[in-house]
Amino acid sequence: MDLPGPIHDIFVVFLGSILILGGLGVVLLMNPIDSAFSLGLVLVCISLFYISLNSYFVAAAQFLIYVGAINVLIIFAVMFINGSEYSNDSYLWTIGDRITSQICISIFFSLITIIPDTSWYGIFRTTKSNQIIEQDLISNVQQIGIHLSTDFYLPFELISIILLVSLIGAITIARQ
Amino acid sequence: MRNLSMMLEFVLFLSVSLFSIGIYGLITSRSMVRALMCLELLLNSVNMNLVAFSDIFDSRQLKGEIFSIFVIAIAAAEAAIGLAIISSIYRNRKSIRINQSNLLKN
């Protein structure tokens, strides 16, 4: 998306802070309906991030599939399973939780220290020199459609079969 | 140029933080629905990485976006199957606690 510089930066930092707070809310909120709506907030923010990364088709697919289908399904499941058992167990901070939080924080900091050490500019320059030959003027959505119908045709058909099989299986499991 | 690498690092930072939050929630959550939500968080952080790398390093071919579309489709199938299993377990056991689901015992 072609916003001017400071507006784009403010927009992205604002979206990122909402995203981290929403992710913490998914894990830490007591009531599961609150965490389901917080998950919806996170998914909407990720969809806006895709718009700021110039990939509009994935943003639309994210908004339609995740927010429109998966999040509604999760909210339906939370409402279907009644919340009487959630209220009685308060969040116990056991020894396992403490060990898990230590491990997750160590994973986080090790990855965070790896990210600035990598020279992204060198990789960018080498990939850019390869791509300077093919200057075609088709849009992103056309490019995705061409890939899906030519060289990713077999995975596309397999994805459709997997979706069909899993939806029939879900109906069969949940019916009874 | 400088701006693009900063944007990439910011997206990677967000993706790492979502990934660690998701792993923490996936391990420590007691109800199955919350574990599924944290699984969605993990898949979304991976998707953010794919889209960011394909936008910044591969803006001609865009193969990372195709992989992210595949990941979204797999996540939809996974959510449908998982919620069906959860509702089936809840119908049989009246509980969705992870540590109390011992249906295969006896």
Automatic annotation (TrEMBL), chain A:
Keyword Transport in annotation: yes
Keywords from the named record: Chloroplast, Membrane, NAD, NADP, Plastid, Plastoquinone, Quinone, Thylakoid, Translocase, Transmembrane, Transmembrane helix, Transport
Membrane topology listed for this record: Multi-pass membrane protein
Catalysed reactions listed for this entry: a plastoquinone + NADH + (n+1) H(+)(in) = a plastoquinol + NAD(+) + n H(+)(out); a plastoquinone + NADPH + (n+1) H(+)(in) = a plastoquinol + NADP(+) + n H(+)(out)
Keyword Membrane on entry: yes
Transmembrane stretches, start-end: 6-29, 36-57, 63-82, 103-123, 152-174
GO MF entries: NADH dehydrogenase (ubiquinone) activity; quinone binding
GO cellular component: chloroplast thylakoid membrane
Functional summary from the UniProt entry: NDH shuttles electrons from NAD(P)H:plastoquinone, via FMN and iron-sulfur (Fe-S) centers, to quinones in the photosynthetic chain and possibly in a chloroplast respiratory chain. The immediate electron acceptor for the enzyme in this species is believed to be plastoquinone. Couples the redox reaction to proton translocation, and thus conserves the redox energy in a proton gradient.
Assembly and binders: NDH is composed of at least 16 different subunits, 5 of which are encoded in the nucleus.
Family designation: Belongs to the complex I subunit 6 family.
Name of the molecule in the record: NAD(P)H-quinone oxidoreductase subunit 6, chloroplastic
Automatic annotation (TrEMBL), chain B:
Record protein name field: NAD(P)H-quinone oxidoreductase subunit 4L, chloroplastic
NCBIfam families: PRK05715.1-2, PRK05715.1-4
Species annotation: Platanthera chlorantha (Greater butterfly-orchid)
Sequence similarity: Belongs to the complex I subunit 4L family.
PANTHER family, per database record: NADH-UBIQUINONE OXIDOREDUCTASE CHAIN 4L, NADH-UBIQUINONE OXIDOREDUCTASE SUBUNIT ND4L
Family annotation (InterPro entries): NADH_UbQ_OxRdtase_chain4L/K, NUOK/Mnh_C1-like
Record bears the keyword Transmembrane helix: yes
Function noted in UniProt: NDH shuttles electrons from NAD(P)H:plastoquinone, via FMN and iron-sulfur (Fe-S) centers, to quinones in the photosynthetic chain and possibly in a chloroplast respiratory chain. The immediate electron acceptor for the enzyme in this species is believed to be plastoquinone. Couples the redox reaction to proton translocation, and thus conserves the redox energy in a proton gradient.
Main subcellular localisation: membrane
